Amino acid sequence: MTRNPSIIPLPLFLLLFLFAADIRAQDGFFMNRHSPAQRHLSLGIQPVVLTQSQETMLLLRGAYGVNGSKTLHGKVGLFEDKTYLGGHIRFGIAAEPRSPVNISLLARVHVWKKPGLKLSVIAGKQAGQAGIYSGISYEPVFP
Q1: Are 91 and 75 in contact (CB under 8 A)?
Q2: pLDDT tens readout for residues 13-25
Q3: At a CB cut-off of 8 Å and minimum separation 6, what does 57 contact?
């Protein structure tokens, strides 16, 4: 039996989460439910409400399907005199119909006031034309 190398980062992610000094809920966990097909590009616009300041930002988003289980994503956020820049890679580790749920791992780097890193696990389930998904993220705070 061969091991799937894409699930090796999961134990590391869980250890980082368990030893976190500060855990809190926040906004900003928005993902596209679908990833683009291999060698396809998708572009979009996403308005965002910043809950701590009650202000809005406009995100320009793009995604490119590298292969059936890996996609590259980029974002540019426009907000008054500040700019958000970010990108992430998404690894699909389980997908319907072979699995009861869709599961993806994400690794993101971004700059908004200061550099940041985010690691996420997303799980989702398709129900006819609709889908439901949720996830958990770990975002270390850099000084």
Answers
A1: no
A2: 555 556 555 544 4
A3: 47, 48, 50, 77, 78, 79, 84
